[in-house]
Specification:
- There is one protein chain.
- The chain is of the alpha/beta class and 420 residues long.
- Helix 11 runs parallel beside helix 18.
- It is globular.
- The N and C termini lie close together (7 Å).
Amino acid sequence: MRSPRLSVPSFPAAPSSRSAVSLAAAGCLLAGLVSCGSPDSGAKPAAEPAAADVKLPGKPVTLNIVDVAGNLQLTQQIFENYKAKNPKLVKNITYTKVPAPELAGKVKTQQDAGRLDIDLVLTGTDGLSAGLEQNLWVDLLGKYSDKLPAVNSLYQPPAVKMQELAKGKGVVVTYYPSGPLIEYNPKAVPNPPKTAQELLAWAKAHPKKLMYARPANSGPGRTWLMGLPYILKDSNPKDPVGGWSKTWTYLKELDKYVEYYPTGTSQTMKELGEGSRDIILTTTGWDINPRVLQQVPKEMKTQSLNGFTWVTDAHYMVVPKGISGEKLGLLADLMKFALTPEQQAITYDKGYFYPGPAVNGVPVTMAPPESQQVLKEFGRPEYEKLIADNPKVPPLESKDMVAAFDKWDKEVGGQKVKKS
C-alpha cells in the first residue's frame, strides 16, 4: 500500500502511507494495547518540564522528528524553512518513519528507560489516540498554552473539531475534508450512481466491479464506513453498535457483490486503473494524488452520493513526555511557525491531503507554483463547492471506531479480506 512515490523519495507517499497506517493503531486498542506498550509496566511515569524551564535553547540542537502518517510530504519543507531561518537554534533535523501501530510501544519503551530520543511526532488520529490511552503526550495546550498561539482562533472551523480530539495534547498541523466519494471509470459507468440505493443496484447488476479496502487498513475504507450512516440517515451516526442498523444491513447486502477487500487502498487504485474494477471508494486526496503520480488514469471521475456529509481528517504534532524544557521551548516556537499562513500554504503539496492547510486565510494562490500547477491540471473544480455546501463531522472517537472495525470484520467482510 505504499506504492505512490513521494516528491521527497526517502519518505512514504502521502495517500498510501497515510492509509497504510490509517487507524491501524486501533488494532492495538482492540487488543487491549498490549502490543503498544503496557501502561502498567511499573516504570516511573515520564515527566513534563516545569513551565519556567520551557525556553529556547542557548545553543543549536538537533531535533528528531518521527512521522507515522506520511505527513512529511506536506510539512518537511516547513521544518527545513524553520531550520534555515534559525541557525542559532537548530543544528540539524533528523526524520524517521515508523508504522503507526508501533509508535506507542516505541515511545513508552524509551520513556520507561529514561532515554527519549523522539522530540516531535507527526501522526494521524490513530497514533494520537494510542498515545492518549497511555498518557504519553505532553499537555501542550494545557500546561504550556502561553507558549503557543490560540490555535482555535487560527483554524478553519472543521479543524477546530479535529483539534478537540487531541484533548490539548496535540496540535493540528494539516486538515482535509476527506470523503467519502465514489471514484469511477466514465467509459464503463457513463451514468454513475447518485444515491446509496443506486450504488447498491449498480453493484448487483455489475458483480465484482465495485471495490473498497478493509476499513481498519484504509483511509477511504474507514471514511466510507463512517460516512454511510449519514447518507442513509441512520438513527445515530456516532454509535456504530446501537445506531447503525441501516448501515450494517446495507453493507451486508453490498458485500454479496464485492469479490474481496484488500488490506490497502493502493490495490483499489491499481485495479481501477487496470480496468478490473469500475467503481471504488475514495477521498479527495486519494483521488487527486494517484492521478498526479499516474497510478490512476487522469480521466477517472468522482462523485458524492445524495445526503453526503464530509468525514474530516487531520494530522497532529505531538510531543512525548520526557522532553527537556529547552527542546519543548524550541518545538513550541516551531509549531507557531508551522501554523503561519505562508508555511501552511506549502501543505497543498500534490493534492493528497487536499486542500491541506488547517488555518484560515490560505488560498491556493499562496501555494508554491508547482502545487498550483498540479492542482490546476489534476484538481476538481467541483470540490470547492462540494466542500463549501456540505456538512462536515469529525471521525468517531477511538473506542467507537474500534467497535465499528470489529463489527465490520465479524459481520460484513472479514472473511473476504486479502492482504495486498
